[in-house]
Amino acid sequence: MSDSVSKSIPLAIVSGDAPASLQPGVKQLAGDKISRSPVQFAEAPVLRKPSWIRVRIPSGNAVAKLKEKLRANRLVTVCEEASCPNIHECFGHGTATFMILGEVCTRRCSFCDVAHGRPKPPDASEPANLARTVADMGLKYVVVTSVDRDDLRDGGAGHFVECIAAIRAQSPGTRIEILTPDFRGKGRMERALEILAANPPDVFNHNLETVPELYRNVRPGADYQWSLTLLQKFKAQHPDVVTKSGIMLGLGEEREQVEQTLRDLRAHDVDMITIGQYLQPSAHHHPVMRYWTPEEYKHFETFGLALGFTHVASGPLVRSSYHADRSAAEAGLAVSA
Fold first, then answer.
1. Beta bridge partners of 204
2. Taken in order 33, 35, 37, 42, is the CA torsion positive or negative?
3. Residue 202 DSSP one-character state
4. In sequence order, what DSSP letters do the residues of 152-197 get, joined into one string?
C-alpha cells in the first residue's frame, strides 16, 4: 500500500452521552467536538503528506498585521477558524474570507475545525464593522461566510443581507461573494431565499463538501439533495448571479462518485466548482483516506469544463475561497484590479 492511498476503514456508529449544557459562545474543539459525533472511526490510517501539498510560508509579518486589524474590528475569518493551509499566502496579499455570525457552529461535521457549541446572538454592529474593514483594506472582492446557525429562524440570511448592504454602501465597487450554510429546516430555505432576494450577492456559493455516499460520516445534519436544491432555487430566482460550490477529496470517495457529483451540480445549474485536498485538522477529525495527485486534479478540471462549468479550480491546495476573485473574473464576472 502506498503512502498516498489507503483502504477504507470501518466505522462504528455510536449514540454518545447526552450533550452537556453549553454556555453561549463557549467553544467545543477537536476531541470535545468530535467525541459526540454520531460516527467514530475504529481505525485511522496515517499517511505521509506528499510533497505537492506542503505549504511554503512567506516572509514578512502580514499575517500578524492583518489579524491585529481584524481583532480591532471584532471580526473573525474562516481562514483562521478552519485552519486553512493558504492563510499565509492570502493574508500576505491582504485578502481574507470573513466569517460572520460568530465563531461557534451548531453542527459537528467531522472534517471541520470550526468550534461547535451554543452560539451567542448575532452582533448587531458586525455589518458596520465588516463594511468599515473592507473599505479600509480597499478590497475589490470580498468573500463573506458563516457558521451554521440552526438556532436562528432564517439561518442567518438576514444578517448576510445586512452585511451585503453595509459593504455596498461604503464600497459600491466591491464585488461580494457569500458562502452560505444550507438553511436546512422547516420553512428555513424558503425564508432565507426570500430574504436574500432583497439584496443578492454577486456570487452565491454553497459547498456540497463531499459525495453523497459519505454524507452520514462527513456532514451529519446536512442533506445532499437539500444542498443541490438550494443552489438550483437561488439560480432560478437570480439567473444573472453566478452560483458556485466546492468539494473536498481524500475522505474515501471514488473517482466515479466525484464525477457523478460534478454532473449533479451542473444539472442543478451551478456555474463554478472548486475541488481541493482534505487535510485533517487534528487527530480527532476524519482521517485522510487518500492524497489525490496533481494529475488526478487536472483530470477533474478537464472533466468539469467539458460538463459546462464556466470555471473549475481543481488542485491539492484549492479551497472554496482561494483566489476567489481570479476565479470569478475567469468565469466572466467583472472584477476591478
1. 178, 243
2. positive
3. S
4. STTTTHHHHHHHHHHHHHH-TT-EEEEE-----STTHHHHHHHHHT
CA distance linking residue 321 with residue 310, whole number of Å? 16
Burial class (CB in 10 A: 0-12, 13-18, 19+), 177: buried
Alpha-helical regions (H) of the chain: 30-34, 62-72, 78-81, 87-92, 126-137, 157-170, 188-196, 215-218, 224-237, 255-267, 294-307, 324-330
C-alpha cell at 290: 487518500
Contact 44/9 with Cβ under 8 angstroms?
Answer: yes
The values of phi and psi at residue 181, to 5°, are -70, -175
pLDDT digits (tens, 9 = 90+) for 107-136: 877 777 677 688 889 999 999 999 998 888
- C-alpha span between 149 and 37 (Å, rounded): 18
Which class for 120: exposed (0-12), middle (13-18), buried (19 or more C-beta within 10 A)? middle
Cell 485538522 belongs to 281
Answer whether 174's CB lies under 8 Å from 168's CB: yes
The whole model's pTM is what? 0.82
pLDDT of residue 332: 74
